[in-house]
């Protein structure tokens, strides 16, 4: 039973997109420093300019993590690619629907807060990029602070950035 509780807690901590996904309202500078989102209008010059693409991708990385921390199912689902892959230390979950099922189970656990720090973001053209994050799933009432290294693969399709893959590794506390 103890193992199942840990697995559920780990799933909660990991589904976040780290994301995608990843600091929450706890006040990490990553969210506060987010630049303005540029227009997603494909005809706008800002949309095709590399710095505009970088701002859009950054905003999507922040949205993934903020939506997860807020336990906002609609926002969180909207930022996940339908064909997303979630990889956690050798275990894989395929598809947004399966990932959302795990997220909903995690959202039901009371008392946790998701924090994140974006360590780097690298663009590959204007249609894909990688974000590297350090995240924590903290539940003060339960006395837990789960620490993770996260790599988010982001893609832009139809003018919208989504999380295509989260690679998550649990770190020692």
Portion in beta strands: 35-45%
Q: Summarize the biggest pleated sheet.
A: 6 strands, mixed
Mean of residue pLDDT values: 80
- Helix/strand/pairing category: alpha+beta
Fraction in helix: 25-40%
Q: Note the total helix count.
A: 7
Any idea what the shape is? globular
Structural account:
This protein is α+β, with helices and mostly antiparallel strands and 173 residues long. It has helices at residues 2-15, 24-27, 29-32, 45-48, 50-69, 73-79, 96-107, and strands at 80-88, 91-94, 112-124, 128-139, 144-157, 160-171. The protein is built from 7 helices and 6 strands; from the N terminus they run H-H-H-H-H-H-E-E-H-E-E-E-E. The chain is globular and about 45 Å long. The two termini are 22 Å apart. A 6-stranded mixed β-sheet has the order 2-1-6-5-4-3.
List keywords for this structure.
single chain; 173 residues; alpha+beta; 6-stranded mixed sheet; 6 strands; 38% helix; globular; disordered N terminus
Concise summary:
By secondary structure, this protein is of the alpha+beta class. It has helices at residues 2-15, 24-27, 29-32, 45-48, 50-69, 73-79, 96-107; strands at residues 80-88, 91-94, 112-124, 128-139, 144-157, 160-171.
């Amino acid at each position: 039973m103890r193992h199942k509780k840990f697995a559920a807690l780990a799933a909660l901590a990991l589904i976040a997109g780290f994301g995608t996904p990843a600091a929450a309202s706890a006040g990490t500078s990553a969210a506060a420093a987010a630049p303005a989102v540029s227009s997603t209008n494909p005809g706008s010059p800002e949309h095709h300019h590399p710095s505009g693409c970088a701002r859009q991708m950054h905003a999507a990385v922040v949205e993934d993590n903020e939506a997860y921390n807020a336990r906002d199912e609609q926002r969180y689902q909207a930022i996940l690619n339908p064909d997303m892959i979630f990889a956690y230390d050798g275990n894989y979950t395929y598809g947004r629907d399966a990932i959302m099922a795990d997220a909903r189970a995690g959202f039901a656990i009371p008392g946790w807060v998701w924090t994140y720090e974006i360590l780097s973001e690298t663009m590959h053209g204007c249609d894909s990029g990688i974000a590297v994050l350090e995240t924590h799933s903290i539940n003060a009432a339960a006395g837990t602070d789960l620490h993770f290294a996260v790599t988010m693969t982001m893609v832009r399709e139809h003018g919208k950035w989504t999380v295509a893959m989260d690679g998550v590794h649990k770190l020692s506390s």
